[in-house]
Structures are given as structure tokens and as C-alpha cells.
Amino acid sequence: MVGKPILSLIDTTRDEIVRQTIKNVALLASPTTIKSRLFHDKLQSTTDIVCLDSIGQKKTEDLIRLTIANKASTITHNLKEQIETFKVPVILGCTELSVIADLLDLDSLIDPLNLVVERIFND
Predict the structure, then answer these.
(1) What domain count does the chain have?
(2) Does residue 121 fall inside a structural domain?
(3) Are 105 and 45 a contacting pair, CB within 8 Å?
(4) Most buried residue, 50, 76, 80, 81, by CB count within 10 Å?
(5) What pTM, to 2 d.p., does this model score?
(6) Tens digits of residue pLDDT in 67-90
(7) φ, ψ for residue 33 (rounded to 5)?
């Protein structure tokens, strides 16, 4: 890995959004990630971001904790229905969510972890 730059999940996500010319995205992330504006500050000039309401954010946080405990499949269906109301690509804003991306089974996911892995192996 000598000579390879350190890749930012958020910058790589922004690059993908620009590449696909996506104008609106949903951010699926913990309340802490949303409050920190990690994605918002980097993406605000590129795309508009919508987030789940406080109930959806709490469900997301519960899902992250269940993922860590290897029990994530228990609440994905209810959360998926809420996410699908956005009808825009969804950014998986916490790396734990990348682990269960297949369980979420969403049509249009932007998985920052997967994007970084692809960039590492394709550059």
C-alpha cells in the first residue's frame, strides 16, 4: 500500500454522487452522524440531503446496535419501508450499515465503504 493516498469515505461518496449527477439523496445514519453534519458539510454544494425523522433516526441507531450484536435482521423491514418513502438514492452513513446492506435490500444504495474498496482495487 506504499504510495496509496488515504481515502475518505465521505469524499469518495461525494465523488460518486458527482459522477452519477445525483441531485437529491437520503442519508441513513445515526443521530450523532447527522448532528455532526459530516456528510452535509461535504456534500452541500453537490446535492440536497434528506434524513429520516427522529423516530427513523432512532430506528437506525437501534439497527446499528443490533448489527454490532449480530441481530440486525429483526428490524430492517420497518426501517426499509420508511427509507423507501424518499424515492432517492440512499447513502449508508455508518459503516455498520454497510455490513447489512443486503438485508436492507434497497434499490438505490450509495455505500461509502464499498466505494472506497472499489477505488482501492481499481486504482
Answers:
(1) 1
(2) no
(3) no
(4) 76
(5) 0.86
(6) 888 887 766 766 777 788 888 999
(7) -65, -40
